[in-house]
Amino acid sequence: MRMKNHKKTFNLFIVILLILVSVFLVISFRNVGRWLIISDAVPPHLDIVFTFAGENVRVSYSKELMSRFDDARWILSDYKDGHSRLLRKGNYDMSRVIVIDSCKNTYSEVNALMDQLRLCDKELYVGLVSGPYHMRRIKMMLSRQERRPNVHFVFLPVPLERYNWTDSMIRRWWKSGSVSSAVFSEIQKIVYFVLFS
Fold it and tell me: Fewest Cβ atoms nearer than 10 Å: which of 17, 134, 157, 165?
């Protein structure tokens, strides 16, 4: 009789545990789209705007930020001189732009940014520009770098509307093809980064 009670208690425990795990997974699944996005308000001052390579919309948004901060430097990560060539062709003033064209992925971009920041000892406010879903992974990569108390990172993802996304699409990310593919891609990259770096 005692053995049956233990078995019933154990089975009940397993069922409750499975229900709790299922609820946790459903809640996590629903919120992962919002969790990936880190966004700060545009501050009153920036010393550096760093643009992660990959999309023209990032360059356009960075140009807007640079027009607001006359003393800021723009560090542009650019594959094969694509965007910087277009900026020069469009007569953009490149005197405040530093082009980094040696990066192969986000991690190498973070390393290149940190190399640039090591050249300066003063307090710096650095605006990071990328896609909304890219920001969580960038923050994770920065957290593994040597801490620099004089550097303040400001996460400035390209606004959602520039991707034709809405808050509703973010809340129900699995229902939108473009948003869901961005979420799944970014989750895969985060898992890879956590497991293999």
Answer: 17
